[in-house]
Each structure stands twice: as C-alpha cells, then as structure tokens.
Design a protein that fits this description.
This protein is mainly α. About 70% of the residues lie in helices and about 0% in strands. The protein has helices spanning about 1-15, 20-30, 35-60, 75-110, 115-125, 140. Helix 1 crosses helix 2, helix 1 packs across helix 4 (about 75-110) and helix 3 (about 35-60) packs antiparallel against helix 4 (about 75-110).
C-alpha cells in the first residue's frame, strides 16, 4: 500500500506541486476505492523489475568455476547485456506513463476537475530557462 501511494505521490508532486505529507494525503485520497487496481499495476511493474534482474544474473560474465552461468560467448553476452540495459529504461518510462495515466483516471473517477492550466504551469518549471538565439538562423544556408 505504501508503494502504491509513493508512486502516485511522485506524480502528484510534479503535476500539482503538492510535496511530502500533503502529497501522500492527496494520493491516498485519490486511491480510495482504486487500491486494488493500483496494486495490480505495481505488482506487474515489480515483477518486470525482478525478471530483468534475474535475466542479468543469468547472462552475467562468470568464471569457469560457476556452474550456473550460461555457456555463451562474449559477443552474444554483450548484445544481451545491451538489450538488458534498454529494457529497464523502457520499463521505467512505461511505468511513469502508466502512473500519469492512472493519476488522471483517478481524478476523473471522482468528480475532481483536471486543471490543465495548473498542470502546464507546474510542468513548465522543469523545462529550465530558454536561452534566446543571438542571431537569426537561416535554414537555407545550413542545408547546402
């Protein structure tokens, strides 16, 4: 339950600028009646993370004394390792996407309005400062 609230609190803190204990209270308020669905999402995410760790263990470069290591060459192991680095990245980005969608689903499940202007203003803080160009850029001169 704490893990479910923690994941939703991270979305609440970014989209609503409500941090720490008030953010946990807000996420708990949003999760009323939806805890089972949210728990299912978290379990799937954690199972995916455990599967990735176990896959790393299976293809880890081990010495000849280790019996549990798969017998494959260093080239395929390198390709598998690169793939296993990409899979957690996709898993985490997908997890963030599901958390954000679930946040909006919780907001619409209860008659809470979604204020997109406030969300947009809160997200603008994370863009950083725009640095204006010192001169105009002509695309035609760049594509010669």
């Amino acid at each position: 339950m704490i893990s479910v609230m923690w994941h939703l609190t991270s979305v609440v803190s970014i989209l609503e600028s409500v941090c720490a204990i008030p953010g946990m209270k807000k996420s708990h308020e949003l999760l009323r009646g939806l805890m089972e669905i949210a728990s299912d999402f978290i379990v799937v995410y954690l199972v995916a993370c455990v599967a990735i760790v176990e896959a790393f263990k299976a293809v880890a470069i081990k010495g000849p004394e280790d019996v549990g290591a798969l017998e494959i060459g260093p080239g395929p192991k390198l390709l598998i390792a690169v793939a296993l680095v990409g899979i957690p990245m996709v898993t985490n980005i997908g997890g963030f996407l599901v958390q954000s969608i679930f946040y909006y689903a919780c907001k619409t499940y209860y008659p809470m309005g979604i204020d997109m202007v406030v969300s947009d203003d809160n997200l603008d803080k994370y863009l950083g400062d725009d640095i204006p160009l010192k001169s105009s850029v002509d695309i035609d001169t760049l594509c010669v």
